[in-house]
Every structure is written in structure tokens, then in C-alpha cells.
Specification:
This protein is of the alpha+beta class and about 80 residues long. Helix content is about 45%, strand content about 15%. The radius of gyration is 20 Å and the shape is elongated.
Length: about 80
């Protein structure tokens, strides 16, 4: 696990070191998520969290099944009833 020291600025900002940004693929304007875990602040990328959610959902969805197609079909059926 890599570590780095940084200081909190007067406006509450911190700098994520360049090596960390590069390793995470972060670019200017990218969103990150902040999460408190006990007395630690965890920073994760939005892309990474989406990947985690997709991996989690895949364990409940059979291969070849496309939830997006099912949702679109349901919405079309609901639209017909309106």
C-alpha cells in the first residue's frame, strides 16, 4: 500500500499526489467519491465504484441476460398504458 503525506489548506483542500492520480487514471474534472470509514477518509473514483456495483450485480444475473433491454421493454409497455 502506497502512502503520502499532504497538508490540509486553509480552505479544506488537499492535493492528491501525481503518482496516485496517474495510478487511478484521474484527470482534471473527474468525480471522486468520499466515504468515512471509522476515523479514515476513503477516496475512490466514480468509475471504480461503478465497476464494483456491476461486479456485485453480475452474481445475481444469468450470463446473456441484459437488464437494460428488460427495463426498456418494461418502459415501452408502461408507455402503451398511459
Amino acid at each position: 500500500m502506497e502512502q503520502a503525506r499532504t497538508r490540509l489548506s486553509a480552505k479544506g483542500r488537499i492535493v492528491i499526489p501525481a503518482g496516485f492520480r496517474e495510478a487511478l487514471g484521474l484527470e482534471i474534472g473527474d468525480e471522486v467519491l468520499l466515504r468515512m470509514e471509522g476515523d479514515e477518509l476513503r477516496i475512490s473514483t466514480l468509475r471504480g465504484r461503478i465497476r464494483e456495483a456491476q461486479t456485485y450485480v453480475r452474481q445475481f444475473v444469468k450470463p446473456g441476460r441484459r437488464l437494460s433491454d428488460e427495463l426498456i421493454a418494461e418502459r415501452r409497455e408502461a408507455g402503451k398504458l398511459e
